[in-house]
Design goal:
The structure is a homodimer. Chain A is α/β, with parallel strands linked by helices and about 210 residues long. In chain A, helix 7 crosses helix 9. The first copy, chain A, binds a DNA duplex (30 and 30 nucleotides) through helix 7 and helix 9.
DNA sequence: CCGTCTATCGGGTACATCCCTGAGTTGACC
DNA sequence: GGTCAACTCAGGGATGTACCCGATAGACGG
């Protein structure tokens, strides 16, 4: 049976969720304060933690990040009144595997917890679109036609320049002379119609060349 | 009742899914080939399309991207034997709202379709972790505590440097002397523990400072 | 009133970078 | 065997950067 831990600073809400989820899951414990929650979750090692986002003392984000650093197998489902993009992103970055709003029906909530326990990602309808849109925008096409203009060696030099290395460092890493690095960079600048290594660095980071 | 459209180049598999999903959903149609699928989906305008990833003639990615360009409200659930990261990313980028493997149980599949119809994102357990990991890595924190170390003027200079401008150009844009720009950059480098404007450009672009 | 912070400049030095010309080596292709 | 592209390296000059020294002026708070 899935062991569930609850965290929410509203005691009344906590009691409500406890009574709804009690028959379905093994309640490993509950907490209404951040530091208390971190310690209790570490001690009870539940399968899933249902956690409020907005709480005094760092909020749910701190609990998730903190616990995951020592117990990466515990899964977190964020439960919040807010559907603000910043909150969702913060929780996902911290490591939450799902995010639902408090307006959810009890039956839907227990179904969501079960899915999280199985390893699925769960998002409320309105959030799913936002999360996937952001995800899609953030993964750019790795191929660029202009990159084909460059020879393999030139691309290799370009990648090092893009990381912020000086010519001297690039030369040492590739076991070639500084003068050779200069030659390659000059070719790259000419082929890409750029005028300085600074513009080149911007050009490269825009295309995630690392 | 949710209108469902099926696309799969394996006729036998298509027939199996049809018989399983038939009682639960209104079957808007089905197709076993890419171009045929695009036309038929546009004509029938279903709520959800269950689509195979690997198909001759461009695969499911082409169908999703093509149909969404004219019908952005149709939702796609990818169904594949592959759980390769490239396939998953390609389908998400194209606009699919979910991705499950063909080893899924029929009951789970119909539940997934229902969730997709409601607007949720659905992923198989093994894929959920991968998608969220990639998502977390790709969304940087927009606010950075180290930026508060810099004075407003220093941040302004930093933004120009991050765009690849030379000191001379920055000076002209801000109507100050080159020497002043040098002073500001020096302060920024010292405060951020960096050693050259090249590293600074990388630092800035990592944080989307533009 | 005085200290600190911020923003503004300058001189001067050491080094990095950009650009030019020139030149030797491979390997592929005809 | 000649051509060509890619890769390698060098000299040298013009410009850009990093960092040291210094200075002035305004704002703000104790």
């Amino acid at each position: 049976m899935t062991a569930l831990f609850l965290v929410d600073d509203h005691e009344l809400f906590l009691a409500g969720v406890l009574s709804e989820m009690g028959p379905e899951f093994e309640i490993a414990g509950s907490a209404s304060e951040v530091d208390e929650a971190i310690d209790a979750i570490r001690a009870s090692e539940p399968d899933v933690v249902l956690i409020d986002v907005h709480m005094p003392g760092g909020g749910g984000v701190r609990v998730v990040a903190d616990v995951l650093s020592t117990h990466p197998d515990i899964r977190f489902l964020a439960l919040s009144v807010s559907d603000a993009p910043e909150d969702v992103i913060a929780m996902i970055r911290a490591g939450a595997r799902g995010y639902v709003t408090k307006s959810i029906a009890p039956a839907e909530l227990s179904a969501s917890v079960r899915r999280i326990a199985e390893g699925d990602a769960v998002f409320s309808p309105r959030l799913a679109g936002f999360v996937l849109d952001a995800f899609g925008r953030q993964i750019p096409t790795p191929i660029d036609p202009e990159l084909d203009l460059l020879t393999p060696r030139e691309q290799e030099v370009l990648r090092h320049i893009a990381r912020g290395f000086a010519y001297k460092q690039v030369a040492r890493k590739l076991n070639i002379s500084i003068k050779t690095v200069e030659t390659h960079v000059s070719s790259v600048l000419r082929k890409l119609q750029l005028s300085s290594r600074h513009e080149l660095a911007v050009w490269a980071s825009d295309r995630d060349i690392v």
